[in-house]
């Protein structure tokens, strides 16, 4: 692997934020979700900065640190689905309103991603997007080398939650099949909650 992955967890919501660094300790780093601003800042080295944030979906526990991270790194790009971009602007849609800590984000540094879009991260390292709705309409899964970041579209030994706004059981099942079909036996799943787990040890029938 040409990347290093650091996980920090929001203690209240148990949501994972992943920090992606190059093995060469390049100054630019990336995030998968931003639910723990302080945890991210504690892991970054003094010369490192966040160049981009890839959002798996727009729920509060995965985006609550977005304003802080962009204030700290104004050149940072937010990568997300069209639905997530719209949800970031509405505290009721992203659910932060219901936690009495409304979060809205209306920055112009957002890049919309769709199925199989790729972005260069480091030398010889790309990130690929899969559209995986079901838990949330705009849910995305990201793959970097042998790492798959599934957000809440696939959590170890947990049925996908579809009862929240824009959730859909049929879409959730299709998305799990897509993740399965895009995972090789050596891939590792990094979910939005819980510990990472090897794709070849997943009981896919549990979800399907």
Q: What is the fold named in CATH at topology level?
A: Metallo-beta-lactamase, Chain A
Distance from first to last alpha carbon: 30 Å
Under the CATH scheme, the architecture is 4-Layer Sandwich
Helix content: 10-25%
**Percent of sequence in beta strands:** 25-35%
- In one word, what is the shape? globular
**Number of domains as seen in the coordinates:** 1
Tally of helical segments = 6
Q: Determine the structural class based on helices, strands and strand pairing.
A: alpha/beta
- Element string (H = helix, E = strand): EEEHEHHEHEEEEEHEEH
Strand order of the largest sheet: 1-2-3-4-5-6
Brief descriptors of the model:
6-stranded mixed sheet; alpha/beta; Metallo-B-lactamas; metal ion binding; zinc; RibonucZ/Hydroxyglut_hydro; hydrolase activity; Metallo-beta-lactamase, Chain A; 20% helix; 6 helices; 208 residues
Write the layout of secondary structure elements.
Blueprint: E1 3-10, E2 15-22, E3 28-32, H1 37-43, E4 49-54, H2 60-63, H3 66-72, E5 77-80, H4 82-88, E6 110-112, E7 118-122, E8 125-131, E9 140-144, E10 147-151, H5 169-181, E11 188-191, E12 197-198, H6 204-207
Parallel strand pairs: 3-4, 4-5, 5-6, 10-11
Antiparallel strand pairs: 1-2, 2-3, 7-8, 8-9, 9-10, 11-12
């Amino acid at each position: 692997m040409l990347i290093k992955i650091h996980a920090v967890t929001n203690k209240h919501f148990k949501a994972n934020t992943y920090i992606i660094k190059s093995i060469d300790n390049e100054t630019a780093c990336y995030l998968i979700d931003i639910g723990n601003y302080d945890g991210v800042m504690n892991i970054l080295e003094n010369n490192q900065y966040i160049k981009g944030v890839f959002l798996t979906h727009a729920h509060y526990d995965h985006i609550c640190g977005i304003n802080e991270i962009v204030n700290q790194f104004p050149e940072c790009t937010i990568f997300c689905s069209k639905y997530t971009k719209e949800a970031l602007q509405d505290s009721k849609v992203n659910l932060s309103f219901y936690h009495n800590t409304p979060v809205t984000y209306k920055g112009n540094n957002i890049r919309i991603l769709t199925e199989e879009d790729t972005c260069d991260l480091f030398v010889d390292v790309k990130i690929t997007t899969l559209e995986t709705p079901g838990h949330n309409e705009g849910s995305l899964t990201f793959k970097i080398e042998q790492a798959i970041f599934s957000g809440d579209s696939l959590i170890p030994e947990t049925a996908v939650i579809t009862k929240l706004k824009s959730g859909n059981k049929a879409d959730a099942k299709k998305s799990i099949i897509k993740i399965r079909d895009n995972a090789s036996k050596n891939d590792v799943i990094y979910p939005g909650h819980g510990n990472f787990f090897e794709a070849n040890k997943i009981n896919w029938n549990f979800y399907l």
